[in-house]
């Protein structure tokens, strides 16, 4: 089997505290010997370093909620309508876990978020540039550990009119600030299709670490089984 996952300090052990977890996988065609030689992930233990200076920190905890160019906040009904204008476009949905969303359920999820949903929208004036989803969740490990609400998963989607201008990086950095500084989680993850180059560059450029690479583990309606990946970062590594 192939090691596809190395989560740095992602698992609670009753005697040893937070330890690294590994995950292994094999596909039926590999077991039958029809294909082989697929790579393992090797860089998960590497120290994380952003490739260039991070955007200025957003002070969520003091209520100052803007990046260099954008204002951030909870979604109002008009924001959700703006997001819905691009969310189901093929060039956006192609990269999402759900290629299409049902508008009414989507509206409800944004306007009546659950306790663990700390998503926000980012605006340039009145125009929504994009959004960052933040879902707080429990960590994994043996019973009895301090795992409750100790992790968050982030995601981000931009209006295609604003792609490629650094806004994604600005919004995702603000999301990480919210997770680590306001919500005080100990670990943040982000998942993507492995061929989403913009998203992968965005995450590694913010210093996140490739911790999982799943060979043909994700289904896409028009592409069939494709590779998935996940990045992770610990609180002490963010803006260290
Ligand atoms: C992924 C997404 C958020 C990136 O946001 P963005 O504002 O376009 O990206 P940025 O301008 O901040 O650039 C971030 C990095 O991606 C790179 N990048 C941006 N667009 C790219 C493209 N089309 N191809 C390759 N790299 C690209 C940038 O060069 C930069 O990398 P660098 O720091 O190494 O130079 C945005 O393209 C998007 O919303 N896509 C559709 C939805 C989606 O894929 N969401 C993520 C699901 S995991």
From TrEMBL:
- Any one GO molecular-function label of the UniProt entry: acyltransferase activity, transferring groups other than amino-acyl groups
Annotated PROSITE patterns: GNAT
Q: Which Gene3D superfamilies match?
A: 3.40.630.30
UniProt keywords (A-Z) are:
Transferase
**Record flagged with keyword Cytoplasm:** no
Q: Which residues form the N-acetyltransferase domain?
A: 70-237
Database matches in InterPro entries: Acyl_CoA_acyltransferase (IPR016181), GNAT_dom (IPR000182), N-acetyltransferase (IPR051531)
Q: Which Pfam families match?
A: Acetyltransf_3 (PF13302)
Signal peptide annotation: none
Spell out the PANTHER family in the cross-references. GNAT FAMILY, PUTATIVE (AFU_ORTHOLOGUE AFUA_3G00765)-RELATED-RELATED
| UniProt name for this protein | GNAT family N-acetyltransferase
Which species is the source of this protein?
A: Arsenicicoccus cauae
**Lineage, opening ranks:** Bacteria, Bacillati, Actinomycetota, Actinomycetes, Micrococcales
